[in-house]
Amino acid sequence: MFSFLGVYALDRGTAISSGSVIEVFARLGVSEEAVRSTLARMVKRNLLVRHRLGRRVYLGLTPHAETVLRDGRRRVWETGAVNRDWDGTWTVVGFSLPDSRRSTRHDLRSRLVWAGFGPLQSGLWITPGTKDVTGVLDGLDVDDHVTVLTARAYTPTEAADLVAKAFDIEQIARRYRAFLARWDVPDPLPDAPDDLVRQLLLHTDWLQLVRQDPHLPAEHLPDDWPAIRAEQVFHARAEEYVRPARTVADGVLDELIP
């Protein structure tokens, strides 16, 4: 759903009818019930806002959703899959939350993963580079339980050791190889009904990859790091699908300017 909204709703100033969203996702094999449930949750979480025209319901992005989607767009199109500009610094987040706040602890860990952090040891997470974690902590009410620092590794600690301890390199590589197995072939997803479906699946696969990739420094990764090829394939396929997918979407989407 985020992939769909990022491509067809962000920065367009329109709202899309729930019926046409259901029609798009039917092409992906997603049931009407699942789509309606997802849209309802997104309204409840202040990601979508309803507009009515007669009996039809249209859904537009909230400012909160636009912020989330722009962050995703930066991850996809600007940050890149390989970090070639690392200056040797790390952002370190240490935290200790009581068991009574287990849910908050889970939310914090999830946000840290999304922000590219890995667990170095219990309650101590790191990510390469200098990161503003204000957005990570926003709304969790954990300022009194969290310490944020920037640091550099010194002997006997090596940067390569930190990468190996805090991040599962092989698991990250496997995800990129799985992406290549699906998309770096002559005819990806031959059973898909059209290029709109291929476009949305491509963007979803790639967004899931980059949101789980901590953007580790290239100098501490294998020379044959599969993210390099995967990024090239994503850009080539995205360019290939953009026009035919837009043609299909124009024939399906019912939009309203609120």
TrEMBL record:
<feature type="domain" description="Transcriptional repressor PaaX-like C-terminal">
    <location>
        <begin position="167"/>
        <end position="247"/>
    </location>
</feature>
<dbReference type="Pfam" id="PF20803">
    <property type="entry name" value="PaaX_M"/>
</dbReference>
<feature type="domain" description="Transcriptional repressor PaaX-like N-terminal">
    <location>
        <begin position="2"/>
        <end position="62"/>
    </location>
</feature>
<dbReference type="GO" id="GO:0006351">
    <property type="term" value="P:DNA-templated transcription"/>
</dbReference>
<dbReference type="Pfam" id="PF08223">
    <property type="entry name" value="PaaX_C"/>
</dbReference>
<dbReference type="Pfam" id="PF07848">
    <property type="entry name" value="PaaX"/>
</dbReference>
<dbReference type="InterPro" id="IPR012906">
    <property type="entry name" value="PaaX-like_N"/>
</dbReference>
<dbReference type="InterPro" id="IPR036388">
    <property type="entry name" value="WH-like_DNA-bd_sf"/>
</dbReference>
<protein>
    <submittedName>
        <fullName>PaaX family transcriptional regulator</fullName>
    </submittedName>
</protein>
<dbReference type="InterPro" id="IPR036390">
    <property type="entry name" value="WH_DNA-bd_sf"/>
</dbReference>
<feature type="domain" description="Transcriptional repressor PaaX-like central Cas2-like">
    <location>
        <begin position="84"/>
        <end position="163"/>
    </location>
</feature>
<dbReference type="InterPro" id="IPR011965">
    <property type="entry name" value="PaaX_trns_reg"/>
</dbReference>
<dbReference type="InterPro" id="IPR048846">
    <property type="entry name" value="PaaX-like_central"/>
</dbReference>
<dbReference type="InterPro" id="IPR013225">
    <property type="entry name" value="PaaX_C"/>
</dbReference>
